[in-house]
Amino acid sequence: MLPGVVVPPSGLPEVQQGDLCAVNLVENRAPVAVGLVTIPTAEMIAADMKGKGVITLHTYLDELWAFGEKTNPPVIPHVYCESGETGHQTEEEEEEEENEEGTDDIEHVTAELDSIENDTADMGTLGFNVENESEHASSATGQTHDSEGHGSEIVDLKEITKGTGNGQDTGNGQDTGNDQDTGNDQDSTEITGTVQEQMDELLLQCFLHALKFKVKKADLPLLASTFLKVHVYPCCPEGQQLDIKKSSYKKLSKFLQMMQQRQIVQVKELSKGVESITAVSWKHADLRSFRVPEAATGEDPVKMDTTCQPLEIKSFYSVPSKLIPLFEHASLKKSATLSNADVRSIITTYVKSNELIDDYNKNYVVINPILCDCLLEKSEHHTITKVTWDDLFTRCLKRLQECHQVTFPGQNPVVRKGGIKPINIDVAQRSSNKKVTIVSNLEAFGLDPRSLGNTLQQKAQASVTMHQVPGTKDKVALQVQGNQVNHIAKLLTEEYRIPAKYIAGLDKAPKTGKKKR
Q1: Residue 265, SS3?
Q2: SS3 assignment, position 124
Q3: pLDDT tens for residues 399-439?
């Protein structure tokens, strides 16, 4: 944030929007954060240093730093203010300090800056943009301020590399540092622009698709929000996700204004704050020449494969080492898996072969030393001499290790330890009394969160985002706007054929109260 930036005596460096920059502390010239400039230097000064100035990509003490060698930044005093000085130094003192600085520190900083710039293109491929990374930028900047407790200032990486790399020239005597910086900055800007351009093309494609094949003249006037949810979103090709916020328009109203300027539609505000499409130019050249791409069916993009086969889930038990004496007569090993019926059959055979059925009451089984060691507690060794058949089976199943087998269509069965955890559906409340539905543990049932999110977005007509489950590396949870338990339950049970007993949280669906007459 610009209010936390300390302007150096020489003034802010000249930067443009999208330039790669470094952030350092007042007492140390070594960078503690790297990011992209959001507004030029002139606009920063004109805004009285208010608002957001840098979108943070990497900071000291963040997860990327923790993944590496976890080294601390070197201490490099500023040329205009050394740590502990007042800042009013003479030119002779400054020259003496520059001569005393070791070349090792400069080379170390230059190497770090080169590595940061070389990695910028890879980080750009993640699709960073100003809106999606706003929350991350604020948290990362706050983390840097809290850990150091000092002010910060923005430094252009071009100026840093220029100041530290004057001695590194090519064979022709030309400095190549500025060329590499310029190329990296252009790559970052091009990557961000490419994401917006792709989303703009997808939005225009769905818009023309909806007007030509979905909207009829009798539907007009049509609310803009209804047009987006009912007509535009279903025209999104399978495997892609339409998000207006990631486009250059940011809002549907701005996109409709652009389409109105191109004379494709007419948009009017029939009621205060509510826009509607009142007319469509069906003979417009763009509509007449539009053809549905092969990836988008245009008929029923949310229709799933009706031949989808459900996965098979079976519960089993494995024999622990303590119970091997009880099951060794069946030639079983520790890694063997048994069903409930198998366990009952083996126990019954063992009891009959050892003649352990009570002579006076056949509903009881006499406890022998093996049954005593395997099934009884230590406090029961001298008190219990016989148990019922049901108690015998219950004790045995309780001491066996539970496991489950999942068979995906067309794949070999997969055996996992423990009981299978159900798909968890939770409803959480966010700021402004807004509710979101969170779906997790989809991977255990062979479901692709991204594909399910795209289908759910079109079914529920609500925004869907994905985020990593805390404490895990490869598990992703879906977050859907609003209480969408009914839509999710219907999608999982009817389309993916997941049994309801493996879905937790179905009771959190919105309750429909009786309407008063």
Answers
A1: strand
A2: helix
A3: 888 888 777 776 777 777 777 888 999 999 887 778 899 99
